[in-house]
Amino acid sequence: GNSVTQMEGPVTLSEEAFLTINCTYTATGYPSLFWYVQYPGEGLQLLLKATKADDKGSNKGFEATYRKETTSFHLEKGSVQVSDSAVYFCALSDPEGGSYIPTFGRGTSLIVHP
Amino acid sequence: DAGVIQSPRHEVTEMGQEVTLRCKPISGHNSLFWYRQTMMRGLELLIYFNNNVPIDDSGMPEDRFSAKMPNASFSTLKIQPSEPRDSAVYFCASSLTGRSSGANVLTFGAGSRLTVL
Fold it and tell me: Strand, helix or coil at B27?
């Protein structure tokens, strides 16, 4: 079956530090990959996505590259801000593998200090 | 579009009472998901509807939970009777799925925070 593994949190950084949150996946088909972000008290919202190998998704300074050879989709940002403090979820969707139900990782909490 | 609308945003009830959570998906979306989020278990899928039909309810914890989608613009999640361990944030999400719709991006509501005393 499909699965998504994220690094455990919380990740604690100072403002302007470099961020990496690791995500690896297993899938039976050729999935699309996503990062969602959940700010305190809110629902998840799409941050970025990539639908094929070597695609780079980007938004709000965040980037992630779909690496089929390493089955990874690591999230990066060059300089984090306090406002980036949130929980980040890696996810995949694999309809060609037989299901429209997305598979989510456990989420990684990011805390950015001024 | 106003996005996915959930109500109530907060509900406090006593053990044994019936709880009904409501969701209005985005117009034109054909898939609807109910999730539960807790600190202990993270984000759990409860049930998935496609074209108003329940496709996968394997995540529904027990018979106390039921979900309906009488039409494309409304869904309910009911807990009867409620128990303290049901305390969680319940999210509804919708998406457009199908061969021509591209990547399956979910749009989540703001959630319903349930506290059962």
Answer: coil
Q: Read off the pLDDT of residues B8-28 as tens digits, 9 standing for 90 and up.
A: 999 999 999 999 999 999 999
Amino acid at A71: T
A104–B contact, CB cutoff 8 A: yes
Q: Which of A84, A89, A88, A107 is nearest to A13 (CA)?
A: A84
A95 and chain B in contact, CB less than 8 A: yes
Q: Which residues of B84-93 are buried (b: 16+ CB within 10 A; e: fewer)?
A: eebbbbbbbb
- Amino acid in position B59: G
**Alpha-helix residue ranges (DSSP H) falling in B13-111:** none
B101: alpha, beta or left, given left = phi > 0 and alpha = psi -120 to 50?
Answer: alpha
Task: With CA atoms as reference, report the closest residue to A80 among A57, A49, A111, A106.
Answer: A111
Split at pLDDT 50, 70, 90, the class of B62 is confident
Task: Extract the tokens encoding A23.
Answer: 């995500």
B112-116 vs B10-13, strand pairing mode: parallel
| Residue A107 to residue B97, Cβ atoms within 8 A | no
CB contact under 8 A, A51 and B109: no
- Chain A CB contacts of B91 under 8 Å are 43-44
pLDDT by residue (tens digit) across A66-91? 999 999 999 999 999 999 999 999 99
Distance CA A20, CA A56 (A): 15
Helix (H, G, I), strand (E, B) or coil at B87: coil
DSSP state of A96: G
